[in-house]
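Slide 14.
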Amino acid sequence: MSLYDKRLEADLLEIRARLRTVSEQVQENLRHGVRSVLDLDGRLANETVIKDRAVNQEIRDLDHLCHLFVARHLPSGSHLRFISAVLRLAVALERVGDYSVAICRVARQIESPLPHTVQHNVGMMGEHAGKALGTALVGFLDGDPDMARVSRGIASQTAASYPYALEGLISAAESERRPARDLFGALLVFRLLQRSAEQAENTVQQTLFAVTGKRKKPKRYRILFLDADHAMASKLAEIALAESHPHAGRFGSAGLEPGDAFDPKLLAFCRRRGIVLPSDDAPRSFDDALDVARHYHVVVGLDVDPSRHFEVPYRTAVLQWDLGEEGVTPDTGAAELYRTLMVRVRDLMTTLGVRDEE
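Slide 15: predicted structure.
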């Protein structure tokens, strides 16, 4: 090995060592933040807040080492990907450090022990978030994408726990006389723990990028269009979205009180355009459309308000399009309605950040 190669490897080892050190400090501060909430330990909370100053300095030093490495070695290929990933991870770690500080500040404000259910959920979410982040970081440091991917399943447990934690907090607020500050503080802790777990996914992406060069895949969306009877408008919206952004996700449509068959104008329009509907395709109810394992990212009501007809999941956004504002009437033809919906659909996908070619 040449002298240059030895220097390059030594610099990489130093960067890895610094990253490992700051990763361990961040994980410890997160654990201590959770513990300070559970035990109402103001002393531990204050110590953790102070320790975050050292974490920030370590991250600045790590950032400096990465830029120095680039200036000294002009890296390319895997070395450049690694340095780029470390810089992004440094940002993620600093965010988790900030989350831990915020949790500690909440702990100092809580006046009385939290209800047992709330404590249990804080502890469980904290354990999952810390384990997910730690597993992802080990995968990155070891250059092991498979290890990093394991953290996704752990992080998903944190996300799945959040709605139940929220319900438990609401129940506590309704059944027990608790200071509002304590309950709002617990709510903030839940959210910060969820955000901490989400940084594990960022770490997985950086691991895949550093090791394989693969970038994060574009977001895929599940979108449902809803109208009164699923005879034409919502089905046309589904068709418009499938034609304009065929690879952007999975799309569906439904009606509040579905008719027996699609509108003849819709069927004639499809024939003219060469759109082949599945032989078993027919108007379906909103309840049937919701009977899926995964939530919809967006539910769009066409002249109806979907939120009045189902309990909106935490991660679902509901929109209502008033087609009358576009001049649509019951006598509007399918082609004209399709053009109106296409404009709306393209605006929606632009808002979601989806490109046409995706």
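Speaker note: Strands lie at 221-227, 249-255, 298-302, 317-321.
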